[in-house]
Design brief:
Helices cover 74% and strands 0% of the residues. The protein has 249 residues and is an all-alpha fold. The chain folds into two domains: 172 residues; 49 residues, no CATH class.
Length: 249
């Protein structure tokens, strides 16, 4: 049963990481197509308006992709935060906790901004479905121009938060973070008889490189080995000194 749960959790975690990568890829593509490829005509309503030309026919499709992937990424980031909080954030302490929390906030903002962008994207898609190149045949009102500028602000923020969340997720898989976990596992496998001998000093020396979190857990798991002086004195059996028979009268 435990193996089945571990396999299911691994599949969910891998699916969440895959969705986060897809979301980051869509954000990079949107950033390039909208704000780099045709930045000069981003808010124009003429034949040179590259954004309205390419985005209006696929606005609803992109909308569904953003909402779906950001929702899955948010759930995966919350699940990752919960799992790593139970394991002490992979022995990284408050640093990794801040990174995981930033990933959760970033994917939440990406999801929220995707919901906010839904009405305007519907307007672009259905207007183009009724009249192709509609922005050339009708005069745009000042309210539509203002809504277009607001949408670009929302869309740009959504793209940035999506990429930031994935960068936070990638940070937790770097060799620097994984190396701490590997050293922690190596230290936890050290036999306690070696620690009680001369190996404890060397283990504590190696453990100083990642904050002493592992040695504390190892000591707590040990049976009868207490490193501190006050506790060792309390754990030491009391000796009774009976007077020698030669001094008794």
């Amino acid at each position: 049963m435990r193996n089945a749960v571990v396999v299911a959790q691994s599949i969910i975690a891998a699916s969440g990481l895959f969705a986060q990568g897809l979301l980051a890829g869509v954000c990079v593509l949107n950033l390039f197509m909208t704000y780099f490829l045709d930045a000069a005509n981003i808010s124009s309503l003429t034949s040179d308006s590259g954004f309205l030309h390419y985005y209006s026919p696929i606005a609803v499709t992109c909308q569904r992709i953003y909402v779906s992937l950001s929702a899955i990424s948010l759930i995966a980031s919350v699940d990752k935060y919960s799992r790593e909080s139970l394991s002490g954030f992979m022995l990284q302490g408050f640093t990794l906790q801040k990174i995981d929390a930033l990933a959760v906030v970033s994917f939440f903002m990406c999801f929220l901004l995707s919901i906010i962008a839904v009405p305007f994207e519907d307007t672009l898609y259905y207007a183009n479905a009724r009249v192709p190149d509609w922005w050339l045949t009708t005069s745009a009102s000042s309210s539509f121009t203002g809504e277009l500028s607001t949408y670009h602000g929302v869309n740009c923020s959504r793209v940035i938060f999506g990429m930031l969340g994935y960068l936070c997720t990638c940070y937790t898989a770097t060799p620097a973070v994984l190396d701490v976990v590997q050293r922690a596992e190596d230290l936890s496998r050290t036999p306690m008889k070696d620690l009680q001998g001369g190996g404890f000093a060397s283990a504590m020396k190696n453990d100083q490189r990642f904050g002493g979190h592992v040695s504390a857990s190892v000591v707590r798991k040990s049976n009868g080995f207490v490193p501190t002086g006050s506790q060792s004195e309390r754990a030491r059996p009391k000796q009774s000194f009976a007077p020698s028979p030669s001094f008794q009268r």
